[in-house]
Amino acid sequence: YLDCLWAQIQKLKKDRWQERHILRPYIAFDSVLCEALQHNLPPFTPPGHMPDAQYPIPRVIFRMFDYTDAPEGPVMPGSHSVERFVIEENLHCIIKTHWRERKTCAAQLLSYPGKNKIPLNYHIVEVIFGELFQLPLPSHLDVMYTTLLIELCKLQPGSLPQVLAQATEMLYMRLDTMNTTCIDRFINWFSHHLSNFQFRWSWDDWADCLTMDLEKPKPKFVKEVLEKSMRLSYHQRIVDIVPPTFSALIPAEPIFSFKYGEETGSSLPGYPVSITVSNAIKNRASNEEILTILREVPNPNQEDDDDEGESFNPLKIDVFLQTLLHLAAKSFSHSFSALGKFHEILKTLTESDDGKLHILKVVYEVWRNHPQMIAVLVDKMIRTQIVDCAAVANWLFSQDMAHEFTRLFTWEILHSTIRKMNKHVQKIQKELEESKDKLEKQQHKRRDSGDDEDMEKNSEEDEEGQLEEQIERLQEKVESAQSEQKNLFLVIFQRFIMLLTEHLVRCETGSVDISTPWYKNCIERLQQVFLMHHGTIQQYMGTLENLLFTAELDHHILAVYQQFCALQL
Amino acid sequence: MSAKLDALKSDSYIEISQYRDQHFKGNRYEQEKLLKQSNTLYVGNLSFYTTEEQVHELFSKCGDVKRIVIGLDKVKKTACGFCFVEYYTRGDAENAMRFVNGTRLDDRIIRTDWDAGFKEGRQYGRGKSGGQ
Fold this sequence. Notes:
Chain A is 62% helix and 0% strand. Chain A contains 25 helices and no strands. Chain A has helices at 2-14, 30-33, 82-98, 102-110, 120-132, 142-155, 160-173, 180-195, 217-231, 235-241, 262-265, 271-282, 287-294, 314-327, 332-341, 343-349, 353-367, 371-383, 389-396, 408-449, 454-509, 517-532, 534-537, 541-547, 555-567. Chain A is globular. With 132 residues, chain B is α+β, with helices and mostly antiparallel strands. Helix content of chain B is 25%, strand content 23%. Chain B is built from 4 helices and 6 strands. In chain B, a hairpin with a 2-residue loop joins strand 4 (104-105) and strand 5 (108-109). Chain A binds chain B through residues 97, 100-102, 104, 141-144, 146-147, 150, 188, 192, 195-196, 198, 228, 231-234, 331-333, 372-373, 376, 379, 416, and chain B through 8, 10-14, 51-54, 56-58, 61-62, 64, 68-70, 95, 98-100, 103-107. Chain B: Residues 39-117 form the RRM domain.
């Protein structure tokens, strides 16, 4: 940003400060103004650097187009011209002012003064994508930009959609080098946009992705777009909208995979109990009755019939959860209701960390073709404390999930989990602050009340005592929550370091280039965790540096940490 | 001067509409108070085939969705074109009013409006034949 602006100012100086885009309404009043009292501007010294000065985070100017991309009509000002700066600033300003009302925002953008001198549609599209792809975060919700672009298409149906299509094509061409976080946003934007326009797109233009390895950025992008598009419509729709040549990229039909079905599962050890449990649930048996039935499930982990009772039995979890979720597979609501009804049983089964990990494994196994369902079930299970956040992190990084490591849903679940943890800590901190405020008010009231009856004084003291107890409890709760939060980040970063180190060592020993699509994804996902949650991570930098990001680490991994520190977010 | 500047902060998409639920148990004032604090949206003009999953995917773009209740025909107990979406925070619901209201879901332009809060029974259509 600064480099670009500096170049623009220097060019402006070379052009003898001539600039024609800033509105100059005062020119119309020149005759009056030149007669008025003139003032001298005092000299101005910018403040020097201070150790505790807070700077805005570094910004990159996002550019897609140059004058060759808009061949007809007015010429697009060059990237180092100050006109470009002025136009972009003004468009950003319009969005900042009117983002809450998309129709007004679109109308204001399209009536930009001086629009006849520039290819306005190109500037608008470039500025909007610039904000959408901004790192660490866009200025506004992703969905604001989607609906703004839709409004713009409505107002300029003969010209804007074409520019948008051109932009989409250009972004597609550059997927190989696009930052992973930006690819996520591109996927979400494009699928949501298409869903408003009957999914009409010239898919054949992208036939080049069909001959590539499916892990490469272009076919991966198309696959994720089709998956997201399916979530906003339905499977058959997706089959209908793409050419038959794209069948390898079409998502799987989002149906339940039941292990204990009659045809395929009747020989499995858990099958008989699965039938019994299924009937018990249908007949509204009590939790005790179901737990009794489940005791019949043999434990593959135990050699002898150790009648310990509730030690970790993966098969028990498997049989119960598969059966329950199968009965509830009809919709999200059915599944949530099932989790709620049998909450007690689930909590018993997942008391241990092994249990928590295994329940996640089973949820994945049954719903592996419906990642959206997996995400909402994991969310519910965290909120109802059937699993904890660290268990989810460990599960996503586990060997069992390695083949899904580069899929978008994996990272959506991880970031959602981190956000829940953060919100939980914030909530308790807020409760603590509120209680402290309440106590302070009580104490002031007591001091100001003077000579009251003894009885009133006693009840006030009781109240204060209760508040002090509450504050102590909340203090403990906050410390416990923060400890859990710190542990979550430690787990996540530790897992990243393990995976990346393994990859780097393997490549080094085999004298193979480290830059595989997997590596690019993984290292950028590590960056993404830092950037998306920088506010929270700041508190734990000391621990991270002492325990994980030490000098012994491979420099590729350490570089990510050091770059993050250098941003001074 | 300040009236002009107010236009810069205009946020008309989140205002409560003229609609008031005739079956609401309470007076107009109470209803309006609930509407102004509500985290729940009524969503109309859904296709009869629109699923909870589709609604969840779209409305999740504005924040974490707490609950979705699909509106049902009172007689047939099948989906009849509306639903309720409840968020954990009002801010997320406001964003849905700004960015989802008037856009398409399952090819239809859907409409969102503030709702005083879901209560058991309100998921049933009140039309003569049992639909909306």
